Each structure stands twice: as structure tokens, then as C-alpha cells.
Amino acid sequence: MKYYTHKVTVKPVLRTTSFPIDMLRYDGLVPLYQTDSNKIHRCCEMNEPHDETLTIELWKRDVKTWKPTEERWKSFLWKIVGHEVR
């Protein structure tokens, strides 16, 4: 079975929405870069509103047909703004 790299980009719907950590486990994703990990950490602290341009890049290796669970992300007030398969 061949595996592909999936890059998923997410963005908060509201500027004060905490990052849904459980979605990393649920979709099997990890932060793409250290900067993305830092953004997740800051989003969990909720000390101040997020920048309107905040996006977080995540990735996983899986079969080509895998897709992130968009409706579940929406339920946490985050939306998927990109999904690339390489």
C-alpha cells in the first residue's frame, strides 16, 4: 500500500477560539513546523485574541483518499482552508 503526505491548513472561525487539541488525535495529525506547534500552544493559553490571519499547518502520512473530518473541525469553530496531497 502506498502512503502519501497530507498537508492540512486550519484557521479559527472566531479570534478567541481555543485550538482543539483532541483533533490532532482524532485525525492523526501533527504540526508541520515548530512555528505551528508554537501557534497551537499560544491558542491554548487564550490570553489574547488571535491575529485574523492565523493559520496552522498540520500533516500526516496516509492513503491518498484520506480526508480530514471537516464537520468535526467546524464543531470546534475551526475550518479547513487547505488540504494538499503529495
Secondary-structure map:
Blueprint: E1 4-12, H1 22-27, E2 30-31, H2 34-45, E3 56-62, H3 70-75, E4 78-85
Antiparallel strand pairs: 1-3, 1-4, 2-3
Structure description:
The chain has 86 residues and is α+β, with helices and mostly antiparallel strands. It contains three helices and four strands, in the order E-H-E-H-E-H-E. The two termini are 15 Å apart. The chain has one domain (4-85). A four-stranded antiparallel sheet has the order 2-3-1-4. The longest helix is centred in the middle third of the chain and has 12 residues, at 34-45. The chain is 28% helix and 30% strand. It has helices spanning 22-27, 34-45, 70-75, and strands at 4-12, 30-31, 56-62, 78-85.
Main β-sheet, spatial strand arrangement: 2-3-1-4
Task: Characterize the largest beta sheet: strand count, sense, and whether it forms a barrel.
Answer: 4 strands, antiparallel
Q: Note the gap between the termini.
A: 15 Å
Tertiary shape: elongated
Q: Can you tell me the number of structural domains?
A: 1
What are the low-pLDDT stretches, counting only 5+ consecutive residues below 50? none
Number of helices in the DSSP assignment: 3
> What average pLDDT do the residues reach?
92
Helix content: 25-40%
SSE order, one letter for each helix or strand: EHEHEHE
Structural class: alpha+beta
How many distinct beta strands? 4
Measured by DSSP, the beta-strand proportion falls in 25-35%
Mind telling me the C-alpha Rg? Answer: 13 Å
